[in-house]
Each structure stands twice: as structure tokens, then as C-alpha cells.
Amino acid sequence: xxxxLLQSGIHWEHKECKRNEFLKxxxxxxxxxxxxxKGSVRIFMTDENEERIIRFGYTGNIxxxxxxxxxxxxxxxxxxxxxxxxxxxxxxKDFYEFIQADEQHMKFWMNILEDLVLQQLERxxxxxxxxxxxxxxxxxxxxxxxxxxxxxKYIANYLRMSPETLSRLKKS
Length: 172
What we know:
This is Crp/Fnr family transcriptional regulator. It contains eight helices and eight strands; from the N terminus they run αββββββαββαααααα. By secondary structure, the chain is an alpha+beta fold. Helix 7 crosses helix 8.
């Protein structure tokens, strides 16, 4: 279905993001949806000047600052390329016209939303687990590609542990 979305009547712009370039910054409203053709991004917010990574996106993922996209209000989230990343970008208007044009398109959007809700619930469970090893194992089982796509320092931040602890867990 993602292929159908990409080949639909939606106007997709191709964008190349350099390493560390932002697709979205805190305080802005996200009126676009992104498909990652190649590369990886991190979605994070800052808390007392410390970055808190809440999600990653990599090749084949659709990403968006969902709170802002749905509400039309500014979000505290940043979306930043971790490495050189190629994305397709579509406007919210074009995307909504696509999903409203056909029942299958709407089901596709509902599947994306359901998947995001389930991912968020898993993330919340991860944050409630005190044991670093258990958090690591849950994420490894859920997203094995993550460890090929994303540098350890970002994964460690996401897992709420030091890079040294993550390195130790990966070796054991």
C-alpha cells in the first residue's frame, strides 16, 4: 500500500537532507508528511536542555510530528536527519485528499495510525521498565534494524542509558 501511496496523485517533493539537518523544529506546526526513501531520522524533544529521543525513522518509514499534523498546532518535537537522508514530502492537504478519495486509502491511513498508537504504547512500557537490559532486549526484538541504521549514542539516549551501558549490553 505504501507503493500505491507513493505512486498516487499526491504531489511528492524529493528532498535531500544533510546529516543533522532538520525537517521540523520545535515550536513549528507540521503540515507535511514524510516518506524516508533512504537514510534515518530521529524525533526528539528537549527537556532542560537535554535531548530526549522518542522515535526513529528509517528507510521505508512514513514519519510525521503526529501531534502537530493532527491538531494543526505547534509541536515541541524536532525531526532531524541522523545521516544523509532522502525523503519524499507531501502536504497535509494533498495527503488528506488522497485518503478521503477511497475507502482503501482511508483503511491504509487507519493502519498507519493504529501502528503508531501501538508503537507509542510499547515506548511507554519501555520507559516504565527500570532494568536497562530488559529495555535493550525489548527494543532489539521489536526493531532489530535499528542497530544497523542508527548510531549507538542515539540508541542509548532513546533507551535512557549511557553509551557505555549499551555497548556492554550489546556484547553480552
